Here is the input.
Amino acid sequence: MSNLQLLKRALPIALVLVLGACGDEQDANSEAPAPEEPSNSVPVIDGSPVTKAVVGEIYEFVPAATDADEDVLTFAIQNRPGWAAFSPSTGRLSGRPPSSAASRIYADILISVSDSKAVAELPAYDLEVEADPDANTVPTISGSPETTATVGNSYSFTPDTSDPDGQVLSFSIDNPPAWTSFDTLTGQLSGTPANDDVGTFAGIVISVSDGAASRSLPAFDITVSAGAPPPPVNRAPVISGSPAQAATVGELYSFQPMASDPDGQALSFSISDKPGWANFSTATGRLRGTPGSADVGEHRNIVISVTDGAATTSLPAFAITVVAANAAPQIGGTPATSVTVGQAYSFQPTASDPDGQTLTFSISGRPGWATFNTQTGRLLGTPADNHVGSHNNILISVTDGIAVRSLPAFSIRVDAATNRAPVISGTPPAAVSVDEAYDFRPTASDADGDSLSFSITNRPSWASFDPVSGRLWGTPTAQHAGAYSGIRISVSDGTATVSLPQFTITVQQIQLGSATLSWTPPTENEDGTPLTNLRGFRIYYGQNSSALGTMIETPNAGITTAMVENLSPATWYFAVKAYTTDGVESAFSNVASKRID
Here is the structure.
């Protein structure tokens, strides 16, 4: 094994970062009188734990703790819930309560922190675990099936079921008689026994399930006996139709099913769970009504049925969701009605939607010299000499995808101009740091090709200005720190003058900071033999924990602390390596960090 491998495993370095203040810090190597042993400060712990948890959901509490002496802190807990984990290094209590913890109260939970000399505690608290409100509710099933049947006569039984969660139900059966059929969607057991079926069919069990839980009727028997010839078999009526599943506040909702009877018998209709805002006709089966704003929401488990007096057939249960009526968007603004050749025209309306829907804009009668933004409604352009005249019937509209609103139609008159004003643009930087270069040059042009000259008002004393190019530049020093407001740069073609908006430049002072590092030197090689040729240490640091690009070397094995100075505002990362007289270097110590503001 090489000396380098031995050293990398044998030189664990514990690095401690001491928050160094900016300026006037005492050098760690300077000699000073040994201070008296200071009294220990009790650590401080703070935080308000949540006193309720929900089954199946993450519970977490992390206290805040500080120590005036900057001692290493450890946390402890009493009466920790068995389903929760606790970190002695951070005090974090977290976990997911199981269903077995529902409705249980974990009393007198006590979290404390210690600096190994003194202990501080949060007030003890009780933690109550609540059941998951979204837990599945078991469906219900009821009914009393006939226990006798007669040869040649039809037998039918359908249980009554419901599910509090509104889930889709399915049915199953154990020990069904061979002469019956079973519907897994409705739970109906039906059939007509023949002469060969006389006898008792025992242990029949009908069950219902919502996919998560199931319930069953008590087991029952059916005894088939011989009898008189059966009357003509009644054929059940037929019902069909697909009701709309949505309705809008203030708008009429209407649905009427189609129904017929193979035997030509008179039919009547019924409904269960009818919405309160709707009317129902028992003669036609029509469901009709206009919901109000108080009816917004889902109306579930609506069932429309038809009967011929002997048999009943139903549509599948359905729901109607009532949504609020759409509110039309609003649009406003007063567009300018004239513009001069060579000058920019710009108008953007204001628009909003009470429902918060996404808006899009459109335009009709748009002038050919202008562009239009369908996302903002902005009309923008600069007319030329051939556009002089009136551009009429311009109409800007906005829509939320359902309703449309428009501004009143307007006209734009393009006037000829003897001189066209120059154009200036640009966004000057609003801040610069002390000893950093500031440089801004606006962009300017003249449609008439006139020569341009620039001027400035409220020029900062540390900056220079070029009247030919409009360039403003300079490097402020520490004495120039502060805000320079009311600066305005203008351009002129000798006739007309235009300006950038006034702006402010803030000169920012830079504060440099420092960080003091200390570490514990290694004493053994990997194989446990004493380390006798330790030469010194190298401190690596940078603004990226995985790229410590700057190094300070301390060629003295007896030095275990150092100060890194002139750190600009940023988060800095530090690590230490030890090296021997042979030049063999250890792996990095742990990485520490400090924020310089």
Q: What stands out?
A: Confidence is low (pLDDT under 50) at residues 1-32.
